[in-house]
Write a structure and sequence with these properties.
The protein has 492 residues and is α/β, with parallel strands linked by helices. It contains 14 helices and 20 strands. It has a 6-stranded antiparallel β-sheet with strand order 13-12-15-10-11-14, with helices on one face. A 5-stranded mixed β-sheet has the order 4-3-9-5-7. Helix 11 links the parallel strand 16 and strand 17. The structure holds FE2/S2 (inorganic) cluster. FE2/S2 (inorganic) cluster (FES) binds next to loops.
Length: 492
């Protein structure tokens, strides 16, 4: 029997994104059988696969540190209880396999003895036939026993796969079959959000019951206490709270993803976590939602912010739901504008701001797995940043192209962050153009070469109008979001 790996698991072992592996499969470089890859084939396509180091951990750490600017908590090792449960299951499986192998070994040896005894005694034609049949059975079992599909080369791949199973849990969602991995001390819910999957939830601490899901197969461990009480029917049907459980084996869960229409409008009082100067005139405002009431939104959407002085503005969110409880905004400093002046001079960490929202349809379509092209002018980069982080988290775009339009000779703000994305991810390319004519030229080239499945353009209204008029962008697959130089959302 040949061992096979799911595409997600093979991508983790090779240390590449699922999209890169999918591209190799569609080009015919890598073969699959029933959607699975053999370790041998994986080694053929990635001969340099470094099994000594933990490629996946290196990759995740690199992305988190470089691209996400350490905003996401490090969560690499599971807690000791979860680790022990996974080790116990792995050890049990190993012990069972050893017993089975020893039994098969004994059967083969007994057949060998029987065959030798019978062949010495066999006289008549019938006896010879039954002796030959005995030999055929023994040879068949011997071949099956030895032909595990694993050789010296592929054994390290399988060993590393087993190690990954201990380090991370794997979840498959039903319906839909989406897969994601649960690392460190994350709950299933946290891991799903981190993977860009919008499941239903409310409090994230075991009170509301909104994150209920049916465990179809596999085992989970409770990692947090919950006050929510299950009905008898729910208890009988293996219902778990995703915010309080983590997988200890590969699991299949019945849980539905939220759509744009199912995300409710929310009003949440948030604390100011930090106000950072990105450029002399651009502020990064980071708000933190309460633990028990996080904002449910799609990357690229906007919210309305209201300060203690009742100053209010609609602003695109600059982060993705994968960024834990942090909600980020980019605002241009301007003392003549009451809101920006208040953020820049009066507001301080620990103060309260109220979020109302989310609104808008400037969101990534996960069904379209080709190239995603992102075009940002000025503070239009804010929603584009959220979308790119989401696209990285979802990990299904064949490639990501980021084009920033910067009119002055200076670098665009957060240029280093964009460069670190391009350094960390082979499938992400970044370029800066000096004006709209150059942007038009670059867009034409990208469309011709990459044929993007979806295009996002955000920036001031006049830039959007010029780009729309240039005809390089098709209407069908392009979404626009008007963001004023102040960082506030304008009506398109
Ligand atoms: S999100 Fe409320 S109980 Fe899990």
């Amino acid at each position: 029997m040949t061992h096979r790996l799911s595409v997600s698991r093979a991508a983790r072992l090779a240390g590449v994104s699922r999209a890169v592996l999918q591209a190799k499969i569609s080009r015919g470089d890598l073969f699959t059988f029933e959607g699975k890859v053999t370790p041998k084939d994986l080694l053929r396509v990635f001969p340099g696969l470094d099994l000594a180091s933990n490629t996946e951990l290196d990759r995740v750490t690199r992305i988190k540190e470089n691209a996400f600017g350490k905003r996401i908590r490090e969560r690499v090792l599971p807690n000791p209880e979860v680790l022990m449960s996974r080790l116990r299951i792995a050890t049990q499986a190993l012990a069972i396999s050893k017993i089975k192998l020893a039994r098969i070994d004994r059967i083969i040896k007994n057949l060998e003895v029987l065959y030798l005894e019978n062949s010495n005694k066999a006289n008549g034609a019938d006896e010879k036939i039954s002796t030959n049949a005995l030999k055929q059975i023994k040879d068949f079992l011997f071949e099956e026993f030895n032909d595990t599909g694993i050789d010296k080369e592929t054994a390290p791949v399988m060993a590393k796969d087993e190690l990954l199973k201990i380090m991370t849990g794997q979840v498959t969602l039903s319906p839909g079959g989406k897969e994601f991995f649960v690392s460190g001390n994350d709950s299933i819910l946290e891991a799903a959000l981190g993977a860009g999957i919008n499941l239903n939830w409310g409090c994230s601490n075991g009170n509301c019951g909104l994150c209920k899901a049916n465990l179809i197969s596999g085992k989970t461990e409770k990692i947090a206490h919950h006050d929510f009480a299950f009905s008898d029917a729910e208890k009988a049907s293996n219902t778990i709270l995703m915010c309080c459980h983590t997988p200890i084996t590969k699991i299949e869960l019945e849980a539905e993803e939220l759509g744009l229409s199912t995300i409710p409008m929310q009003k949440i009082k948030c604390k100011v976590k930090s106000i950072n100067l990105l450029e002399p005139d651009i502020l990064e405002l980071i708000l933190q939602t309460p633990r028990s009431k996080r904002l449910r939104f799609f990357a690229g959407q906007s919210v309305s912010l209201t300060t203690g002085k009742n100053l209010q503005r609609d602003i695109p969110i600059a982060s993705c739901p994968c960024d834990d409880r942090n909600i980020q905004f980019h605002i241009r400093q301007n003392d003549k504008d009451g809101f920006a002046g208040y953020i820049g001079h009066t507001l301080k960490p620990g103060d309260t701001i109220t979020i109302d929202g989310p609104t808008g349809e400037f969101i990534y379509n996960e069904e379209l797995t080709g190239t995603a092209l992102f075009i940002a002018a000025d503070t239009g980069f804010a929603p584009i940043q959220g979308l790119i982080e989401h696209t990285m988290a979802v990990d299904n775009a064949a490639s990501i192209e980021l084009l920033r339009i910067q009119a002055s000779s200076q670098k665009p703000y957060l240029d280093n962050r964009c460069r670190s994305w391009a350094d960390a991810l082979d499938e992400l390319a970044y370029q800066v153009v000096p004006d709209l004519d150059a942007a038009d030229f670059a867009i034409r080239q990208l469309i011709q070469e990459k044929q993007p499945a979806q295009i996002f353009v955000a920036g001031p209204t006049d830039s959007l109008e010029k780009l729309k008029a240039s005809r390089s962008l098709s209407k069908q697959n392009t979404k626009y979001l008007a963001v004023a130089p102040s960082g506030y959302q304008e009506s398109n």
